[in-house]
Amino acid sequence: MTPSAASRVPPGEGFIAHVGRRSLEAGRALSDVGTWTPLLAIQMRRLGVDSVPIAIFIAVFTGIVLSLLSSYIFTGAVPMYFVGALVGKTVMMELGPVLTGMALAGRVGASIAAELGTMKVSEQVDALETLAYDRYSYLVVPRVLAATLMFPVVTAFAVAIGVGSGWITAINLLDLSTAEFLKGLKQFYQFKDVWFGLVKSASFGFAVALMGCMRGLATEGGAQGVGQSTTSAVVLGCEAILVLDAFWALVLL
Amino acid sequence: MRRSNEFAVGLAVLAALALVIGGALWLSETDVNQKQASYKARFRTVGGLGVGAPVTLRGVKVGRVEAIRLVENEWVVTDFTIDRSIELPRKPAAISASASLFGEWSANIIPLEPLPEDPIIRNALIESDRAGGEAWPGATLPDIGQLTAQASRIAGDVGDITQRIGQAFDSTALKNMQQSVKDLAAISGRLVTFANAQTDRIDRVSENVATTSDAFAGVAKTFEGAVARLDTATSDNQLRDIVDNSRSSSADLRHAAADLRSVIAAARANETSLVRVLQAADSLMTRIEAGNGTLGMLASDSTLYRETTRTVIQFRELLTDIQANPKKYLKISVF
User: Which of B167, B52, B77 is nearest to B128 (CA)?
Assistant: First the structure.
C-alpha cells in the first residue's frame, strides 16, 4: 500500500486493521511456545520473585496504617473488632492488589520499557529478527505472561503480610486482643475477597507488562527516547491499574 | 542459572498457593478434619443473616452459617456447621436475630420445647415445624433496622408537622401576632391606669373592712366572755340542776300524757254508751221542743210557767206564814 493509498483509509478502518494485525501477531507469538517457554522462568524470577521484597515492604506499612486508621475511625461508637474486618477486607480486595500493582508498575513497567527501548535503539531487536526470532515471541510474550502469572503471587504475599502487620499492630498498639481481631477478620470474610484481589492483580500484571513492552518497542532515538518510553510506560501502567480497578469493581462486586 | 530461576519461581508460586489456600480455609473455618456436623433450619425469612454468620448456643459460638437458599413453598433453608462435640437440645430450633446495632446477625439455637412466649416467634416456629422434614424449625426476630425505620417514619411525620406549622406561621400570621401582642400591651397599660385610679377607693374599702373586722373582734370577745360565764355556771352545777328539773318536768308531762291517753281510751271505750245517751237526750229534747210531756208543756206554754211561779210564790208565802204562825198549821198532841 502506497502512502497516498494509506492516507485514504478511514481512521476507524485503520484502527481495526491495527488491532487485527496485533492480534494475529499475538496469536502467532503465543503459538511459538518453543521460543518463549525457556524465557518464561527467567522473567517470572525477575518480574515476580525479585519484586516480592518491595511488595512486602509496602504491605507491612499498609497494614500498620490501616489498623491505626481504622481504630481511629471506630473509636467510641463501633466495636473495635471491626478493625480486623476492615484491615482484612481492605488489604485483600483493594490496597493489596492496587498498591502492589502500582509498585510493580514502577519497578517492572519501567524495567521492561527501559530494557526493550535500549534494545530497540541499539538495534538489538532488529538483530533478533535477523536471527529469525520473532520479537513478540522472544521479548513480549514471556514478559507479559510472567507478569500476569506472578503479580497474583506477589499480591498474595503482600496480602498475607499486610493482614499480619495489621494484626500485630492491633494487638500491640491498640487495645485489641487477637481473638477480637480474628473475630472481625473471620466474621466478614468471604472467599470472593481473595480471588477478587488475585484476579485484579493478574489483570494489573498483564496491563503493566504490556504497556512496558509497547512503549519499549516503540522507543525512538537514543537515551532520551528510552527515558521517555520508561516514563510513559510507568504512567500508562498506573493509569491502566486504576481503570482496571474500577472496571473489576463494577463487574465483580 | 536456569534451574535456580525455576526453583525460585516454583518456591514463590507454591508459597503463594499455600498462603491463599491455607488462608482461605482458615478464614472460612472450613472443616478439614470433619469435626463439624451439618444441620439445616427452615425460615420464612432470615432477616439479615448471611453466610459466615455465627451460630450460637446459649450465647456461645458453636458454628457458622454455611449457605442460605430459597426453596419451595416460600421457605428459606440455611445450612449450619456445628461442632460435633456440642450437645444440642433434644429438639432444637433456630432463631435468626440481630446480634448488634451494626448489622451483624446470628443464628441462635434454642430448644423447641417449651415454645417461646413471644407469640410471633411461637407461631413462626409452629408453622415451620409443621412443614416437617429434617430441617429445624426457624423464626426471625424483628430487625433493629425495622425499628429505626419506624422511628424514621415518625421523625418524618414530625418534620411534616413542623413544616406545616412553619407554613401556617407565614409573614401575615406573624404580623397578626405582633399586632395582638401590641394590643395586649395597650390593654395592660389601661388596666394599670384604672388600678391606680381605684387605689383610694380600694384603700377606703380596706379601712372599712378593717373596722368591721375590729367590731367582729369585739363581738367575738363578748361571746368569749359569755362562753366563759357559761363555763363557770356549768362548773357550779346550776346548769345541771336546770337540766335535771327539765328532765323531771318532762317525766311529769309524759305521765300526764299517759293519763290523758288512758282517759281518751276510756272515752273511746264508752263511746257507744255516750252515743246512746246523746241519742236519748236528743229524742227527749225533740219531744220537749214539740211540747210533748210535762217538760214540753213547761217549755212551750208560759201559763204553766206563770202558774208555777205563782205557786212557788204562794208556797214561799205559806212557808213564811208557817214559820211565823206554826201553831196555825201544826197541832201537836200526845194523846
Answer: B77
Domain that holds residue B16: 1-30
Residue pair A214/A147 in contact (Cβ under 8 Å)? The answer is no
A156 to chain B: which residues are within 8 Å by CB? 16-17, 19-20
* Average pLDDT, integer, range B300-327: 81
- CB under 8 Å to B49, separation ≥6 — which residues? B65, B68, B78, B96, B105, B106, B107, B140
Burial pattern A18-30, b for ≥16 Cβ within 10 A else e, equals: eeeeeeeebeebe
ipTM score over 0.90, yes or no: no
C-beta separation of A110 from A5 below 8 A: no
Distances (CA, A) of A13 to A17, A23, A218, B284: 6, 15, 22, 171
Most confident segment among A12-16, A37-41, B280-284, B307-311: A37-41
Closest-CA residue to A50 (of A60, A40, A42) = A42
Q: What is the CA radius of gyration of chain A?
A: 22
Q: Are residue B38 and residue B136 in the same domain, yes or no? A: yes
Quick one: CA torsion of A94, A100, A106, A109, rounded to 10 degrees? -90
**How far, in Å, CA of B331 to CA of A64, rounded?**
186
Is B3 in the A-facing interface, judged by CB distances under 8 Å? Answer: no
Q: Which residues 268-327 in chain B show a CB within 8 A of chain A?
A: none
Identify which of B8, B29, B100 has the shortest CB distance to residue A45.
Answer: B8
8 Å CB contact of A153 and B53 = no
The Cα–Cα gap between B335 and B323 comes to: 25
Task: Indicate the SS3 state at residue B105.
Answer: strand
Residues of chain A in contact with residue B53, where contact means CB-CB under 8 angstroms, are 187
Report pLDDT digits (tens) over B24-74.
888 877 767 777 888 999 999 888 888 888 899 998 888 888 889 999 888
Residues B112 and B25 in one domain: no
Spell out the residues 6+ positions from residue B23 whose beta carbon is closer than 8 angstroms to its own: A160, A194
Residue B41 placed within a domain: yes
Same domain, B23 and B66: no
Would residue B232 count as lying in a domain? no
Q: Which residues of chain A have pLDDT under 50?
A: 1-6
User: Which residue in A44, A123, A59 sits closest to A90, CA to CA?
Assistant: A59
Domain ranges, ordered by start, for chain A? 15-252
pLDDT exceeds 70 at position B186: yes
Record the cell numbers describing residue A222, joined without a space: 537514543
Quick: pLDDT tens for B122-138. Answer: 888 888 888 878 889 99
User: Nearest residue of B to residue A191 by CA position?
Assistant: B24
For residues B294 and A128, the model is more confident at A128
Residue B87 CB neighbours (<10 A): 7
Domain boundary among B101, B132, B147: B147
CA distances from A143 to A51, A127, A207, A209 (A): 14, 19, 11, 6
Q: Test B5 with A41 for CB contact under 8 angstroms.
A: yes
What single-letter amino acid sits at A15?
Answer: F
How many domains does one find in chain B?
Answer: 3
Cell 465483580, located at residue: A252
